[in-house]
Amino acid sequence: MSEPTAETPAETPADQPKTESHDPAVPAAYAAFMREGWGERDLDVPRHPVAEWAAARRARLAEAFPGERLVLPAGTYKVRANDTDYRFRPDTAHTYFSGNQTSDAVLVVEDGESVLYARPRSERDTDEFFRDRQYGELWAGRRPSAQEISDSLGIEVRHVKDLPSFEDDRKTRDITTDADLARVADELRLVKDEWEVAELQEACDITALGFEDSVREWDRAREFGERWIEGTFFRRARAMGNDIGYDSICAGGSHATTLHWIDNTGAIEPGRLVLLDMGVEGRNLYTADVTRTLPVDGTFTPLQRDLYDLVLTAQQKGIDAVRPGVPFLAAHNAAMEVLAHGLEDLGLLPVSAQEALDPESKVYARWTLHGTSHMLGMDVHDCGRAATEIYPKGDLAEGMVLTVEPGLYFQEDDLLVPEELRGIGIRIEDDILVTADGNRNLSASLPRTSADVEEWMGRHTAG
Ligand code: GLY
Ligand code: MN
Questions:
Q1: Fold classified for 42-187
Q2: pTM
Q3: Non-local CB neighbours of 460 within 8 Å, separated by 6+ positions
Q4: Chosen CATH of 190-461 out of 2.60.40.60, 3.40.50.300, 3.40.50.720, 3.90.230.10
Q5: Ligand 1 binding residues, C-beta < 6 A
Q6: How close is the Cα of 289 to the center of ligand 1, in Å?
Q7: Using one digit for the tens of pLDDT, what is the confidence trace for 394-450?
Q8: What separation in Å is there between the alpha carbon of 246 and the centre of ligand 1?
């Protein structure tokens, strides 16, 4: 093999530590000296509360594919730039069915028996622990041992290097390539168990704190712009959760009309609104997804308030529609009914609201743009590979969690709306649990009415 160049990077053999060209040489004397004289390094890996839930989930998955072998990898690191990777975040289905969050593991479910093939801490008799940038204990931290993972998750754990190639006659499905397995896994995740609901509630509660932090730092937000809010929220997410569940949308002024504005390069300017769509992903990977639209000055102008109240009415009608047995789309239909009539009252529709609401027309959607709801769980847009007839075309059931997030968006170059509306974007989003007899708003601790938003901003921006 020729010497590696910029075009042909060196491949690291599987059993060699992953090092970089600028790492110093390791002479034999140094390597030998490094391998001796080490004691124990404790790692606190208590029994994980998800263990029993995950076992029940695996049993349901196995029931759906009798006699088959199901393979669910956690995934591995993704390169961010050259030799630096993104922080690892395991595949959702892998963690849902195993509880494991360590990288490179593979869950195998077979005849109701499950084995987690994991990449445990490196032994001290090779160079890996002090040379390997990805897995080395002295570079990346102490990984749990196979025994520790097993004790914590209540599952048999073997080393991932012993993962069989599965070349026997048994049907083997790998979730990364098998659409049926991916579909069933997502369908099983639609209804949240009690432990998951508590995790989502916690994610919403930490998210509320992150919104509060942002408003408490309003002076700095006004000085530095959208990214001050992004950073402020991120600090809360990392301090109390795992991460943010998706890139925060911190959209001042007309940026709010860009649905996924994540550049966050703009200013926070007097007299404007700022749309904040932010969610904390908790330590067990359940994420909130909450949007509030705030007046930069702490009080809405009469026009902003009218539009805000229209979106709030639509959202409330959407939330009111959520209960077991109704179509998933009930919240969307209820919210769009309100917004289409509101747009008619504003004199914007080229036809009546009733005509605009006809599925063959939908011209009102020029200003509402997106669906009102998506499922929420470990993925912000959860269970997206479920069969269409089940989600989104199916019915709601107790234990499902969905967002209700209608919005109005008037682009700054929209010549069909009066100038005073151009550049205004408003969305209000909450996370709604379907209960036995209706619903519960998991993000209700954040204010929603225009009056409550103003009172809350006044309380947290003062001093
Ligand atoms: N929070 C962004 C979205 O729902 O698309
Ligand atoms: Mn959302």
A1: Creatine Amidinohydrolase; Chain A, domain 1 (3.40.350)
A2: 0.95
A3: 212, 215, 216, 218
A4: 3.90.230.10
A5: 246, 277, 289, 380
A6: 7
A7: 999 999 999 999 999 999 999 999 999 999 999 999 999 999 999 999 999 999 999
A8: 8
